[in-house]
Amino acid sequence: MEEYIAVIAGTTESKAVVEKLLKDKECPVAFVATKLGTDMLAQYGISTVEGRKTKEEFFAYFKQYRPKKVFDASHPFADIVTANVKEVCQRLKIPYERVERKSTQYDYENLIMVSDTREAIEYLKSCHGPILLTTGVKTAGTYQEHLEGKEIFVRVLKKGNSLWQCLKLGYDKEHVIGLDPPFSIEDNEQLIRKTRAAVLVTKDSGVSGGVPEKIEAAKRCHIPVVMIQKPEERKVPRLLVTAAGSGTGKTTITLGLMQCLKNRGLIVQGYKCGPDYIDPMYHTRLTGRASVNLDPVFHKGRMGMMFDQYSEGADIGILEGVMGFYDGIGSTTEGSTYEVAKETKTPAVLILSVKGIANTIIPMIQGILNYQENTIKAVILNQCSKGFYQQIAPKIEEECGICVAGYVPVNDTLTLTSRHLGLTMAGEMKQWETYLYALADQIEETVEVDQLLSLAKKAKDLNTKEEHISKEYPVRIGVALDEAFCFYYEDNFRMLEALGVELRFFSPMRDEKLPEDIQGIYLGGGYPELFAKELEENQSIRMEIRQWCQDGKPILAECGGYMYLGQSIKNQQGQTFAMCQAFGHRTEMKERLNLHFGYVTILAEEPAGLLTSPIKGHEFHYSAEYGDDFTCIVKKNEKRSWKSGYVTKNQYCAYPHLSFRGNESFIKNFLEQVKEELV
After folding, report:
1. What global pTM score does this model have?
2. Catalytic amino acids?
């Protein structure tokens, strides 16, 4: 490659940089994250390198094709990219220059500059009247959680997941405004007057970020503007809550700790180790931010990147473990909380129940600490009296060499209730806030929260990896979402949107028709057996989905969605309800967990269509399927396998839940079939 100057592009400022370099007869090469960036610079006829690059990939590229200089004209809020490029240039001794977006310096007496979301919230607490947020969906829940009683309107991009996220966070439909830029002064003014906004909130995203138009519109309407300054480079602290086994209080203590941190004004991002759906719902409802699954089986080598990606705008990340610390697949540590802690370099606090045990807790702790090299840094004793804690804690610290960060006494009123798939869902809990505040009060009283916070701040830096995902699938997919279908990995939605998919949400319980102009359907898991009567009674959409399947159109269904597509569901009370009858199987609820559970491999009986190669999934259900026309084989291991589900050229319907990030080829294959529906 001839001598060149690298431009980290994608913004309006990058166009100005390219124009100046060409004028100076230099050879610019632009690095852009998406095709949109490539298209923006197409008029200049320069070389572009498309796709998101990790720090390591920037290093390898610049080492092989060394630029004369690097101009960083990335978005002002793309702090991870800036940090990575800056570090690479320092290591390779390449001249680096940050092209700062021009700040909006306006002589406007009602412009209030704040350093971050937390400071913005503190100012807004004293404001009267409706608030208009133009800061995006990532922090929308944080404002709502901390500004209880305030009327908040939020403007987000007009795409399915952004709108749905706001609704999931508890916003009224009338208060969520989906619009696509650019926005003129008149557009902003009209929105301010429509919402009766008394204050407008924005990021300092500069001239090309539409800030001047917001300022001028606010001037015309005589309302103040709260502007969040560009974030500085920073590391998000993190802490993992683990235990010796299930049922020892992980979720309860995790929620209590999250609420304590929230009470201190911190923005908390929740994570769940492994393939769980219910615990993340609790995290999401508490924090106001969508909780994310970190699964060593599906996401090995990517969990650090995912942590950084989803922690943007947060003050701390709290990871909740699964089962016991070392419990993985079979008798191994594969897929365990231990693997998550190790890969993400996250300090862990070990929850141990002392119910029915005394001095034996010491060799238990010693055994856990010495079994493998680990990140466990503290212990909390659960179901523990104050007197016993005072006796045993000094002995544990002396003999085990680990700090005891407190205890939690027995309190049945703070115990979460369960049903056949695990805990009851967060939305079903009565007096939710009362419960959380009581739980937080207990944690504050007997647990050293400041000590845990200090521990979280000591987490080592992550060498994150950003994935290259291009928006190559501009298709529309209908997604079933209601009380019956609510088990979805947040990362699946994010990945679909990163690939260019527009999500259209609908309710099989309430909507009479499928969303218009969709090319595919995604039916997730949940509790269809609890709402079988409502699903049966909504005959119109059942018949439409049945016809969709019979016409051979693209559909992806897992677990509860798979049950819904069958002939019928028989609940635990012995009642049978008709379902879509798109496929020949029927399902029945059982009293015990189906033996077909855990991580599995799915393949076609005759490899073809969507399953040209095996994919990975996870099963956990109390129902059993009955039928004789299955076309998939599900393998637990080399000795155990069974027939289940259906696969065709563009349809996949089976029990296992799928991580799209962990089955990238499969989901792209499915989207290719969806894309054909556009032709």
Report:
1. 0.70
2. 559
